[in-house]
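[job 4471] stage=fold_predict status=RUNNING
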Amino acid sequence: MTDNTKYTLQVGIALVIANMIGTGVFTSLGYQVGPLPSGFVILMLWLLGGVVALSGALVYAEISTTLKRSGGEYYYLGEIFHPLLGFLSGWMSTLVGFAGAISAVALAIGSYSAVLIGLNEKWVAIASILLISFVHLFGVKASGWTQTLLTGIKLSLIAFFCIAPLFFAGDSLSGISFLPQPGDWDLMLTPGFAVSLVFVVYAYTGWNAAAYIAGNLENPARNLPLALLLGTGIVVVIYLSLNAMFLFVANFNELNGQNDVGNIIAIKLFGVRIGQIFSALFSIALLSTLSAMTIAGPRVTEAMGEDYPSLQKLSTRNRYGMPYVAVLIQAGWSVFLVMVSSFKEIIQYISISLSIFSLLTVIGIFFLRKTHTDRPFRMPFYPVTPLIFIVVTCWMIYYMFREDPKIIFYSLGTMIPGAIIYFSVRKK
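[job 4471] inference complete, writing structure tokens
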């Protein structure tokens, strides 16, 4: 494989950042301030999510540099446990993890931009998916350049948004304190905190993005751990800064139950007209998330096509070296989800579905260490690092099941067709 088919460390970091910073941080706060009316608790919620994401990134860095192949959980779970588990992970990644998340991001793009351009938000969402998918059919160089550019635009806008209240807030400050108040520590042990963590986990989804292109990354033994850790670390700082800024500008009543948090803050800072312009700019920035998922998602589908002769067509590449069939299938399914779903309906579904397979992958490190002695990267603080991820994720899933068990059943139900397909196409 030539250098022209390898992604650089810069692209790997951009991929992680772009996958993570999507709709979650600009929408989920409205679902958290109701059960958690405390600035300190909200920031602790996002910090805990960051610690979990960093713990997962360290585990994935060791797994991915040991197994050395693109495909993410699909390949890891199949190699560590059983091909069925890997196939189900790939199936859920294709249907939910990437296509579902792409549709959610595209809907957010449509919602933020439709006001200014005067088009139906679903048509804007569909056009965004098709445009980005088209760009990524023209090879690694074109897709990498696009990804880096869009991520740069996103980070520039976020940086401006974080400091804007210092100059434009005026008398519109919320007065919310970020110091611990009586009862805050007890609030962190409530079911409301655990359920709110589901939205935070969704916002942090994507910390493992670089693992999906492990086989397409320059010097993966060095660059993959760096991409995972630096990308995730940067996002943790950004998320804490953004949420502090949101709470600095708007009070709990203004945010409670709202999913257009970014728009609310922009209007409060700059007025209706300028606020709408900034909302449209953020819709452009969200294209980087859509782009990152369009890069990573087809690598899972491609890997499945390479492993199963009956699905060989999925791994077909065009003259630019891109798995175009996988890209087109992902785009088509994403467009379908945009047409039949709403943003709010798929957030918890995505978060829980992906958490199940991330949890199983992290558990897999205990087995991998027994079977593979050659590990280019060894995570620090083992076994504490994976245990942090396991305990917090199980705690979140347990309370989510108590509060809304149908989400878990939806996720498990989606796996059944995947299992049927596996037994139909598996190698004899």
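[job 4471] summary: Residues 83-117 form the longest helix (35 residues).
[job 4471] exit 0
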